[in-house]
């Protein structure tokens, strides 16, 4: 395994800030390239009347022009560097902490159980930062969606809907949610996100670890950049693809409340979604998630590992 995840170099057992800093450099460019796909994912999961992915693309373009594909982009771009740095840093340092206390050496090769615990910790921590970001993004992406009169159980919050725009931007969105729903409103959908991210990060970091080991030839200290890119992409596709059912539930819970209140919680959302649309509703946008997950995660892991190697090289030059 490369660098942090397998401990190919001797490092202290203390918390390493380089683990948090190294992934920050490349995430904004990756996000800006893949974000236009994200709105399709959100609309398919939480919207109605789109049918399939191609129809969703045409509908968004016809009704909202090219600008529609970039709605809600500013807040994720401003925060995703912090989010990704924290997730990778927490995973790496948790892994070292476990190895230090279990084996007496922070660079000891991690067992599968060690990787599972480190991934679960990273998943829990990610919700604290990621839930408000996802909430604002989804609210901004879904606020122009038409009201479906057939949903007789929905309770309108504002007269004049369907055309009304609820939020003027991310700052107004956050202040509106805090004013109407309090701090708990910012973490709407957090339960579904925990159920998505805890197993999701296990299926993110663990396949990456084993794929890198598999791609690395005997005698090599670390896999090549191309191996890291492929392993990261496959891990991302696996993780995002399998996370789709809970991602659908999370998106619906967070979109709920823009103009209407429909769901009481995770169980109620699952029950209503299944009752109204069948089992297939939980697999909406699975293809998009997997396709988007490959290049995004491939670039993420490659950028993380190369940045980490660069930081270590600079540190070695300063402290030979």
UniProtKB/TrEMBL annotation:
Cell compartments where the protein resides: Mitochondrion inner membrane
UniProt-listed InterPro entries: MCP_dom_sf, MCP_transmembrane, Mitochondrial_Carrier
Segments annotated as Solcar repeats: 14-97, 110-214, 223-310
Protein's recorded name: Solute carrier family 25 member 48
Domain of life: Eukaryota
Keyword field contains Glycoprotein: no
Keywords of this entry: Membrane, Mitochondrion, Mitochondrion inner membrane, Repeat, Transmembrane, Transmembrane helix, Transport
Topological relation to the membrane, as annotated: Multi-pass membrane protein
């Amino acid at each position: 395994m490369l660098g942090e995840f397998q401990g190919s170099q001797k490092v202290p057992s203390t918390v390493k800030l380089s683990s948090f800093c190294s992934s920050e450099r490349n995430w904004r460019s990756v996000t800006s390239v893949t974000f236009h796909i994200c709105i399709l994912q959100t609309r398919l999961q939480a919207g109605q009347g789109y049918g399939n992915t191609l129809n969703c693309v045409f509908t968004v373009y016809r009704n909202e022009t090219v600008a529609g594909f970039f709605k809600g982009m500013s807040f994720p771009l401003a925060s995703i560097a912090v989010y990704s740095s924290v997730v990778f840093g927490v995973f790496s340092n948790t892994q070292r902490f476990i190895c230090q206390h279990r084996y007496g050496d922070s660079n000891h090769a991690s067992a599968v159980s060690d990787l599972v615990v480190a991934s679960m910790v990273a998943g829990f921590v990610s919700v604290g930062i990621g839930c408000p970001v996802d909430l604002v993004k989804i609210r901004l992406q879904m606020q122009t969606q038409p009201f479906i009169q057939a949903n007789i159980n929905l309770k309108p919050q504002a007269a004049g809907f369907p055309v009304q725009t609820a939020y003027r931007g991310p700052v107004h969105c956050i202040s509106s949610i805090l004013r109407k729903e309090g701090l708990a409103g910012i973490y709407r959908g957090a339960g579904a996100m925990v159920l998505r991210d805890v197993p999701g990060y296990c299926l993110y970091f663990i396949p990456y670890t084993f794929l890198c080991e598999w791609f690395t030839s005997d005698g090599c200290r670390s896999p090549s950049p191309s191996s890291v890119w492929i392993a990261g992409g496959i891990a991302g596709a696996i993780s995002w693809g399998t996370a789709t059912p809970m991602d659908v539930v999370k998106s619906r819970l967070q979109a709920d409340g823009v103009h209407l209140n429909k769901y009481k919680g995770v169980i109620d959302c699952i029950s209503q979604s299944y009752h109204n649309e069948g089992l297939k509703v939980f697999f909406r946008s699975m293809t998009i998630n997997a396709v988007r997950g490959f290049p995004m995660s491939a670039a993420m892991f490659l950028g993380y590992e190369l940045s980490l190697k660069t930081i270590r090289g600079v540190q070695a030059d300063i402290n030979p």
